[in-house]
Amino acid sequence: MEMKIDETEHVRENGDIFIHRLKDLTDEEKQRLEAQNSRIIPDAKAVRLEKEAKRHWDLFYKRNETKFFKDRHWTTREFQELINFQADERITFLELGCGVGNMVFPLVQEGFSNFYFYACDFSPRAVEFVKSNSLYDESRMKAFCADLTTDNLFENIEEGCVDIASLIFVLSAIHPEAWSKVAEIAYRSLRPGGLLLFRDYGRYDMAQLRFKPGHKISDNFYMRQDGTRSYYFTEEELQELFTEAGFEIIMNTYVQRRTVNFKEGIDVPRIFVQGKYRKPCND
């Protein structure tokens, strides 16, 4: 299904711009992208990166522990659905690709006492960091290892038991050939009417434009210095992916914003894709 493009910009008070069109590239940015094609990662190395994906992420968490990603205190602002439940209504929440709990634990701190949290990740080391957090409470949360490109998530949870699932900066790290399986797993985890909350890197984000030759695996898919990988999405790709998985598209848009750190002299434009996808009530 072809999506109608809305050129209107919706500007938030915090300066975030929600828009349904790609960033216009400067001549310099076009040259950077073209230069990336001068040295593509060989197929044999790309295959090895796929086979060693878990090891690279486990080493990432060994090096950085819980210090790399900031806690996501912005999620209740961006996803109002998290706070639209009655206080006495029991809600089951699943964080797909939880890392060290940067989404779950801010929700715990904000007092979501009626939520039961499941948190899963590819990396055993990341899961151990979640379990060792002082906010981890076995009476209201369960953290476990799961590979979202297989069915083993359902060794720890029942299909169709989740009210809200999140997939935040996770899909970009997974090989494009496995995306449909990830979308299927997310769909199967949700009850009818359940909601998937999504945010990830958008096409022509600053991080994509900064890659040097020797890091490109395939179109818009790159290897970072530490061996982890990242893809940069268009909203059309995500619209097609989640529609084919059976979801209703509630929201699917680019978010343009600036990352500012005055102390370090950082002021860079960022582009993300944000979505809300619902499992039909009649499924």
From TrEMBL:
Any one of the GO BP annotations: tRNA methylation
One GO MF term: tRNA (cytidine-3-)-methyltransferase activity
One Gene Ontology term, aspect cellular component: cytoplasm
Function text: S-adenosyl-L-methionine-dependent methyltransferase that mediates N(3)-methylcytidine modification of residue 32 of the tRNA anticodon loop of tRNA(Ser), including tRNA(Ser)(UGA) and tRNA(Ser)(GCU). Interaction with SARS1/SerRS is required for N(3)-methylcytidine methylation.
Assembly description: Monomer. Interacts with SARS1/SerRS; interaction is mediated via tRNA(Ser) and is required for N(3)-methylcytidine methylation.
Keyword Cytoplasm: yes
Recorded superkingdom: Eukaryota
Protein name per its UniProtKB record: tRNA N(3)-methylcytidine methyltransferase
Keyword annotations: Cytoplasm, Methyltransferase, Nucleus, Transferase, tRNA processing
Signal keyword on record: no
Membrane-crossing residue ranges in chain numbering: none
Family: Belongs to the methyltransferase superfamily. METL family.
Catalytic activity: cytidine(32) in tRNA(Ser) + S-adenosyl-L-methionine = N(3)-methylcytidine(32) in tRNA(Ser) + S-adenosyl-L-homocysteine + H(+)
Subcellular localization, as worded in the UniProt entry: Cytoplasm; Nucleus
EC nos: 2.1.1.-
